Amino acid sequence: MEVKTDFLVLGSGIAGLTLAIKLAELGSVAIVTKKEAIESNTNYAQGGIAAVMDPLDSFEDHVRDTLVCGAGICHEDVVRFVVGEGPERIRELIQWGVEFSRNEQGFDLGREGGHSTRRVLHAKDLTGREIERALVRKAAQSPNIHIYENCMAVELIRKPGPSGVVHDQGRCIGAYILEPQKGNVLTFRAKFVALATGGAGKVYLVTTNPDIATGDGIAMAYRAGAKVANLEFMQFHPTCLFHPEAKSFLISEAVRGEGGILRLKSGEAFMEKYHPMKSLAPRDIVARAIDSELKKSGDEYVLLDITHREGSFIKKRFPNIYQKCLEFGIDITREPIPVVPAAHFMCGGVLTDHCGQTTIEGLFACGEVACTGLHGANRLASNSLLEGIIFAHRTFLKIREILPGLVEECVPIPEWDPRGATQSDESIVVSHNWDEIRRGMSNYVGIVRSEKRLARAKRRIDLIQQEIDEYYRNFIITRDLLELRNIAVVAKLIIRCAMRRKESRGLHYTIDYPERDDRNWKRDTVIQRG
Ligand SMILES: Cc1cc2nc3c(=O)[nH]c(=O)nc-3n(C[C@H](O)[C@H](O)[C@H](O)COP(=O)(O)OP(=O)(O)OC[C@H]3O[C@@H](n4cnc5c(N)ncnc54)[C@H](O)[C@@H]3O)c2cc1C
User: Fold this and answer.
1) Residues whose CB is less than 8 angstroms from the CB of residue 345 and which lie 6 or more positions away in sequence, other chains included
2) pLDDT digits (tens, 9 = 90+) for 143-169
């Protein structure tokens, strides 16, 4: 079956929803999303969204903080327009119904690591949930938007070239979409396709990301021939709750912003050994410091201590974190929180220009799936929600500009080939391979890398990939199998990018090249299939 729409948006996080709401002014929009609409990385964002909203703050300071954090390879022009356009986009979110926390002075601005001042708008510690709530509501009100929940994009479709191979040439004209509950693969045809599929934290064993974050957009774009970049820069959040029963629960950077101190199990505060900003140093430095302390002590976690602040303040400022920790038997007003670093944010992704255009005509990318030049080698805290709304807006402007000149050719798209279509009980192999990839990535391609470790990881992923390809060719596809195939592709791309960069910079640290080398490596790492 073929579904025809003007615009196909893959993903319903902040980037996808913002873009869809705007595109609905121009025509019909299909949002395809893997689970229910709110389920996304956005939904779990706690700290907030950075923007210059305080008269005492300045664009120049926000630009400088972003550039410092990005370790020399942010694109300064991108940083300047993202920071400069931030306040207008924030006002738009507010108009659409997002309610940020306020105090007597105005917005209650939080402070996070790497920021020289308080500039983070938040909705208590549930900022992402509040944004998703408002955007899903706004999208649902538009008659031009149809949300396809529990549907998964499998592969992008490019206009067939002379060879007849669908995803090999020409502009992007749609995507194959799996309806897992029915086992159908539908063909979606669109004038423009936008990837807003978010990040890839699930490539690692310990992550703050929810299950949807399997790097599908990066893998699909790469397979379709788009350029991808800077995938070696996976940001590890220093403070994910360590508890045997807690799955991916983040302790927001804002806890350190409000005075939280990192300590060893013995109670000793250790960050002064690593950075003058101590516990509020940039994330990469804090994550590496914790990694190093854990390796020295053999402990499984360090402690984040905010007990010196008033209990009533903690409960008011961090109601969600307080409640969640309490469920695990930790009263954060009285005892420190056990934490470990966890894969958190992908700074690289599908390469785009200033308007979200990828290197494939007709295909745009915005949000965490994209590599726009904003983050460089390390993302400044709370700049990613901001990036999502800025690039969604710019993508909309670009599409609005080029839409009238678009000559649509109604080329036939072959229906999805159901492959070997043999039913199989592949679930055990799939879950073993999932586990092996994620464990291998955490062990060998984590916070501290080496040539040897990367080579070892690559050898293993190569083998697993052969096995997955065989399954993919011969058996009926399932969501698990597709996600496994995608995490294997992204894992391999991370390793390839990391192997290329013969220096340490930002989030990429290798013991074989421990110094930053601006003469040779002050640039993006760009990879394309073939
Ligand atoms: C715990 C946590 C806390 C964070 N805190 C902050 C913060 O305070 N400030 C900040 O700026 N950033 C924060 N981040 C990062 C930020 O939340 C994300 O970078 C941002 O929300 C990404 O938005 P997005 O729209 O690009 O993707 P997402 O919000 O992740 O949305 C991706 C969407 O794509 C869908 N999708 C994925 N694959 C497919 C597929 N194959 N087919 C169909 N649909 C698909 C998903 O279901 C989802 O709807 C945090 C992240 C986490 C995990």
Assistant:
1) 199, 201, 234, 235, 237, 368, 379, 384
2) 999 999 999 999 999 997 665 544 457
